[in-house]
Amino acid sequence: MLSAQVVIKKYVLYVRLDGELDQYTVEGLRTRIVELMEKYQIKYLVINCEQLRFMDSSGVGFIIGRYNRLKKKAGAVVLCAMNEHINRLVQLSGLHRICVIKKNEEEADKFLGVA
Amino acid sequence: MDNFVEMRFSAKLRNVVFARAAAAAFLLEHNLRLSVVNEIKTIVSEAVTNAIVHGYFENEKETVYMCLELAGERLTIKVVDTGAGIEDIEKAREPLYSTRDFEERAGLGFTIMDIFSDELTVLSAPGEGTTIIAVKNIELEAV
Predict the structure, then answer these.
(1) Is the residue at B142 inside a domain?
(2) ipTM for the complex shown
(3) Domain annotation covers residue B105
(4) N or C: which end of chain B has fewer CB within 10 A?
(5) Which one of B46, B69, B73, B139 is the catalytic residue?
(6) Which of B14, B35, B108 sits opposite A93 (nearest CB)?
(7) Is residue B31 annotated as part of the catalytic site, yes or no?
(8) A60 and B106 in contact by Cβ < 8 A?
(9) What's the number of domains chain B is made of?
């Protein structure tokens, strides 16, 4: 079970995840996010993990996929408000080396200059 | 305190959440640290997803078997499919290796299971399916 609230500000797509991100829930999320990213010519994807309780390697795959897309547009993926479990997975998978990590959405906004 | 449960369920991706929750419920009375519970849930999630996606190619008519056994402070998680099997187990266990790149898999399933378990055994043969046995030593509170 996963729900995602999305907000678009200029070229930034904010995705606030609530629930568990696994192979089952990632499919619908991917379809929706890919569509929005194309439609609004998104350069930065901010994934707010505050309410994300669980993630496995399916979620890592999803983030790598979005990173690869945005890298071509000189954009970035920003991960914020991760709990201990999500953060551990991010470190283990090396995502912290390719994504921008911020404490919360405000910090992400400051980084992106869209506040 | 020793305990054992086993279950069989359809090879549907929606059942991965069931398998994770079952593992968490199995250990609930022991009040394990959240980080340990999350590691166990992740092992289950990776193993069951592997069985459904790589063993059965998401054929929902197939069945995944899972059992959990607690003996002292030793938790054993066993996930079995009788599907496609793995050609090269060593290769499958390498970080970032994925047979199905086009689907954006991170190829990290086995690596994560390796890191989160104390012992990980993968038994597999092409056409005969895969058995994943993960052992995790957990500290139980003295009662």
Answers:
(1) no
(2) 0.93
(3) yes
(4) C
(5) B46
(6) B108
(7) no
(8) yes
(9) 1
Rounded CA-CA distance A20/A87 in Å is 14
Q: Which residues contact B52 (CB under 8 A, 6 or more apart)?
A: A23, B11, B12, B13, B15, B16, B58, B64, B81
Residue B143 lies inside a defined structural domain of this protein:
no
CATH number at residue B58: 3.30.565.10
- Decide if B83 contacts B129 (C-beta within 8 A): yes
Global confidence as pTM: 0.93
Element at A43 (helix H, strand E): none
Instruction: Find the CATH number of the domain harbouring A22.
Output: 3.30.750.24
Tell me the nearest-neighbour CA distance from A113 into chain B, angstroms: 30
Residue B116's Cα: distance from chain center in Å? Answer: 11
Residues 55-114 of B with CB under 8 A from A: 103-109, 111-112
A65/B112 Cβ within 8 A = no
Query: What is the span of the domain harbouring residue B126?
Result: 3-137
For the stretch A79-99, pLDDT in tens is 999 999 999 999 999 999 999
Nearest in space to B94 (alpha carbons), one of B80, B113, B111: B111
> What is the model's pLDDT at position B87?
86
The parent domain of residue A104 ranges over 2-112
Is B50 part of the annotated catalytic residue set? yes
- Fill in the amino acid letter for B98: S
C-beta atoms of B46 and A64 within 8 A: no
pLDDT, tens digit, for every residue of A22-49? 999 999 999 999 999 999 999 999 999 9
Average pLDDT over residues A65-74: 94
All residue ranges of chain B with pLDDT < 70 are: 96-106, 142-143
The verdict on B54 touching A (C-beta cutoff 8 Å) is no
